[in-house]
Amino acid sequence: MEKKQTINFGAGPAKLPQSVLFQAQKELMDYNGIGISVLEMSHRSSDFNKIMNTTENLLRELLSIPDNYKVMFLQGGGSAQFSAVPLNLIGLKQDRCADYLVTGTWSSKAAKEAEKYGKVNVVHPKLERYTKIPDSSSWSLTAGASYVYYCCNETVHGVEYNFTPDTHGSVLVSDMSSNFLSRPVDVSKFGLIFAGAQKNVGCAGVTVVIVREDLIGYALKDCPIVLDYKVQADNNSLYNTPPCFSIYIMGLVLEWIKNNGGVEAMETLNMKKSSMIYDIINSSNDFYVCPVDIACRSRMNVPFRVGKKEGDEALEKKFLDGASKLGMISLKGHRSVGGIRASLYNAVTVEDTLAGPFKLHAFKLNSL
Ligand code: PLP
């Protein structure tokens, strides 16, 4: 059946590479000639074991993950990690204190959750609006903190770190849910990285956790067993039934990334795509306004207002209706901030992006 031509700018679950969908469709009823679907496969079977190993090995290869890091495939999304991180790591030091950088909705939620398990120190003055990253010279890190936490790309606000925070020796933890594998990362600088799959590396259901081995084994005694990194690491993410199909899809996406030049090539593409949109915004004489500081504008999620700085809601509605008529979907900004947000994850092509902003731009000139 002919597929409707839709350009998906959704923030997640988001567009998947089309070749991945074709492959999954081809194998849906009969995986690798074994007569059953991955959906029906025992998580303890040798076939699933191969899927897990292939997925983990691809991830290790793409990010050059050092041998002293465990890779786990867990459930509960990024939100479960907001709890799992403090439950497992805040006890690393006696004081049970953790430093948080709060630069948007997701790090704010993570910090709030961590308060249940220890002392949380937000290292910079509270931000009135999430449109920048406070200069690192203004951070007051806690000596003896168990870890320093930040969200590498704030999906709602379009704020992305283009540097790795210097923690002066403390363990660094990052939520990379919305820019995972969009660019190279030096894993050895981190104690822990986590990422939900449904934006850049697959579908909802699985969350990757990459953690340095020496940080495992410090869970608080009340930590739920499925969130305990030691239990999950010792059981190779099979303490309980894992999200088998989501792991399989992640494996296909990782293979696609590898075949398309790896994370370096993804970075080049993502810079190109996001610049195309930011260039239109910057040259629009404030018809489009992106509130985020130029130094930390996200390559993954581009938020902007239409008509004026704080957004002309009637124009924005027209804009979204027009975009929808042109086959573009999920451009509405997050309900907490309004406006427009174009998400440009790895699977969104340069052609999609070209079609998107240029059609929108023409649309602006002709129709608004
Ligand atoms: N962290 C970031 C950066 C996100 O964008 C999201 C969701 O969009 C989450 C965490 C929460 O993920 P989940 O809905 O899978 O719990």
Could you characterize the architecture of this molecule?
The protein has 368 residues and is an alpha/beta fold. The protein is 34% helix and 15% strand. The protein is built from nine helices and 14 strands. The strands form four sheets. The chain has a seven-stranded mixed β-sheet. A three-stranded antiparallel β-sheet has the order 11-12-14. Helix 3 packs across helix 4 and helix 7 packs parallel to helix 9. It is globular and about 55 Å long. The mean pLDDT is 95. The site of pyridoxal-5'-phosphate (PLP) has 11 residues, from helix 3. It is an enzyme of class 2 (transferase). Keywords: Amino-acid biosynthesis, Aminotransferase, Pyridoxal phosphate, Serine biosynthesis, Transferase. One of its GO terms (cellular component) is cytoplasm.
Question: Short description, anyone?
Answer:
The protein is an alpha/beta fold. 34% of the residues lie in helices and 15% in strands.
In terms of topology, how is this protein built?
Elements: E1 7-8, H1 18-27, H2 46-63, E2 69-74, H3 77-89, E3 97-100, H4 105-114, E4 119-122, E5 147-151, E6 153-154, E7 159-160, E8 172-175, E9 192-196, E10 207-212, H5 229-234, H6 244-259, H7 262-282, E11 288-289, E12 301-306, H8 313-325, E13 328-329, E14 340-343, H9 350-367
Parallel strand pairs: 1-13, 3-4, 3-5, 5-8, 8-9
Antiparallel strand pairs: 2-10, 6-7, 9-10, 11-12, 12-14
Helix pairs in contact: 1-6, 2-6, 3-4, 7-9
Residues 12, 77-79, 106, 151, 155, 175, 177-178, 196 line the site of pyridoxal-5'-phosphate.
